[in-house]
Amino acid sequence: MEFNLKLCMTVLLILITYQDWKERKIRNQYIILIFLIGIMKGGYIQQWGWTKQVLGLVSVSIPMFLLNQIFPNSFGMGDLKLAGAAGIYLGARKMWSAFCISIFLAGAYIIFAQGLKKHKSKDIIAFGPFLSIGIFLCML
Predict the structure, then answer these.
(1) For the segment 88-97, what is each residue's pLDDT rounded down to a tens digit?
(2) Which of 9, 10, 8, 30 is nearest to 19 (CA)?
(3) What is the residue range of 122's domain?
């Protein structure tokens, strides 16, 4: 069962990465499916660690939301929803790790792209692909 959930999560993260990179938008259907997979993991595999899942839901998404209020448009709403839904699946500790990995990867990408003159400092990048990679690595 756990393998099937990880496989579904992987497929969804690939779809999110592709869509967000191309369109800078994450479909709510993908977020809902990740949310449901997190609920299934909690119910069938972990025998309901409610506190772990609720903390996972809010541990990264709330700070991202607050950062977005201080620095407008620093994250898209799809990124916030993805962090919350994936937090239910991963739990707070792994979700923080996924977030740190994604920040590092996005920063490395920006530095690399600016070095190649592909991006300017004011350009907007899609954060969903980097968040998806971080989630995937912490899911393994």
Answers:
(1) 999 999 999 9
(2) 30
(3) 2-139
pLDDT at position 116 is 80
Quick: pLDDT tens for 11-26: 999 999 999 999 999 9
Do residues 90 and 138 make contact, with C-beta atoms less than 8 angstroms apart?
Answer: yes
Q: Return the residue matching tokens 């990264």.
A: 60
Domain tally for the chain? 1
Q: How confident is the model at residue 48 (pLDDT cuts 50, 70, 90)?
A: low
* DSSP secondary structure of the chain: -HHHHHHHHHHHHHHHHHHHHHHS---HHHHHHHHHHHHHIIIIISS--HHHHHHHHHHTHHHHHHHHHHSTTSS-HHHHHHHHHHHHHH-HHHHHHHHHHHHHHHHHHHHHHHHTTS--TT----SHHHHHHHHHHHH-
pTM greater than 0.85: yes
Round the average pLDDT of the chain to a whole number and report it.
90
Q: Which two tokens stand for residue 132?
A: 């998806």
